[in-house]
Amino acid sequence: MTTTQSFNMVLFGGTGDLVMRKLLPALYQAHRSGSLGPGRILCLGRRDFSQDDYHGQVSAKAREFLPKADWSDATWAEFANRIHYVRIDAENADDYPALKEAVNAESAEVTVYYLSTSPSLFTGICQNLAAQGMNGDNVRVVLEKPLGHDLQSSNDINQSVGKYFQERQIYRIDHYLGKESVQNLMALRFGNALFDPLWRREWISDVQITIAEEVGIEKRGGFYDHTGALRDMVQNHLLQMLCFVAMEPPFNLDSDAIRDEKLKVLRALVPYTNEDVLTKTVRGQYKAGASRGQPVVGYLQEEGVPADSTTETFVALRCEIANWRWAGVPFFLRTGKRMADRLAEIVINFRDVPHQIFPAPGGISSPNKLVIRLQPEEHMKLYFLAKAPGDNMRLQQVHLDLDFAASFSIRRAEAYERLLLDTIRGNLSLFVRQDELEQAWKWVEPIMNVWAQDGSSPKPYTAGTWGPAASSALLSRDGLSWHEEA
Fold it and tell me: What is the DSSP annotation of 231-300?
């Protein structure tokens, strides 16, 4: 669907990594596909760049991060005509009249302010925009994570931004929600009669959600050591994915109808007691090992990381949802740096048949499972048992495979591309509402507090593996194991 509104896309932090690596390439793809309507892109930064200097930097970065097949010199030159660099110090109120003049240089139906900056600047930026009357009804503001480091700091940011912008104008972005596979999860559940009767405690034994990264902290030691995997990944990405798995059908596709159902899931998550944190959570920290056949250092040897750091680079959790659909079904969440493979997936393990009349393949029971892979490729696999060829009744696990790239000939929008277009269109469905964010922090905070008071170090795991042994033990207590097919 093409964006028809004329727009200004104003990118604070215009010389930063996110703008260069993700946002401008995403907007280029939207322009290239014809989805991006008439509009300008204003990139803001403190450096004294000429337009040619800035365009040169952006072009070099875009070539690096865009697929070669998608690059066209002519298309890029056309797209670059939309990009205007504006020198501004986001913390200096005196620079905002000039920004206002730049934004108003051409009329637009919608103006989007994307705050690709430290969250510590959000309040000041919003205050300065409001002081210049740049927060009218046709304005949207996009907030990048992390929104705070705990419940109080998150609430402080939201309340301060809320002084200047209404909730319907605030777009809290979680790029995982822009992935086609997450949206296809809704289509799978609510657009087909096949799965809904099975999508409940009577037929599902457990749910596993994994986001694994091969990379380490990539020279972000100063930032990461004050954040950790729980804040960086669990509080937002993993809990949002859990909500899409567990939510009830919304009555329609309106933004608040969807977000109301996600909020119900977050409220139904069973809170952790101090004892639960010690028995149902695992935190780890990678040590030296190998990644893709190359030796890599441990977390404590990374640049900017204190030698005695107890920051976790791995988290595994066992949690439950206290409602009629899911009571008693364990949900296992897992994320980590320097793991064996790069993947994001949701695994739905179904219960075994009540009485098995066939010999188990390899002596091991293989119940049905649905694997929804979000990255690196996007597909869904439904695993079941079928008779293997031969003269005896021997079963073998096989799967039906829905490969999105093979099934659909049209190009699929990347996550940031989809979300940026949604900000222009005014579609809040895939953005996080304030009460969702607050409830997620309420659930995560007891884990943070107990870990801080515990005094023990994270469990070590070798880089290039699937995490500490305690992560496997977390599932083995329920007679389960992680799905780890590459």
Answer: IIIIIIIIHHHHHHHHPPPPSSS-HHHHHHHHHHHHHHBPPPPHHHHHHHEEEEEEESEEETTEEE--GG
**CA angle 231–241–28, rounded 5-degree value:** 90
Would the pLDDT of 49 be above 70? yes
Please give the DSSP secondary-structure letter assigned to residue 352: P
What's the length of the chain?
A: 486
Residues serving a catalytic function are: 237
Distance CA 109, CA 37 (A): 11
63, 160, 330, 438 from 270: Cα distances, Å: 47, 30, 11, 16
> What end-to-end distance do the CA atoms of the chain give, in Å?
34
Residue 60: helix, strand or coil by DSSP? helix
Other residues' Cβ atoms within 10 Å of the Cβ of residue 388: 13
The CA distances from residue 211 to 62, 157, 175, 450, in Å, are 26, 27, 13, 23
Contact, 236 vs 444, CB < 8 A? Answer: no
Coil vs helix vs strand at 7? strand
- CA 7 to centroid of chain Cα atoms: 26
pLDDT digits (tens, 9 = 90+) for 217-267: 988 888 899 999 999 999 999 999 999 999 999 999 899 999 999 999 999
Q: Residue 277: left (phi > 0), alpha (psi -120 to 50), or beta? A: alpha
Task: For residues 294-319, give the mean pLDDT.
Answer: 96
In Å, how far are 201, 220, 268, 375, 404 from 410, measured between CA atoms? 37, 36, 39, 19, 10
Name the one residue in this structure whose structure tokens are 């469990």.
459
Distance separating alpha carbons of residues 261 and 257, to the nearest angstrom:
7
Residue 486 has pLDDT above 60, yes or no: no
Answer yes or no: are the C-beta atoms of 241 and 176 closer than 8 Å: yes
Of 25, 24, 32, 34, the closest CA to residue 3 belongs to: 34
* Nearest to 19, CA basis, from 37, 42, 53: 42
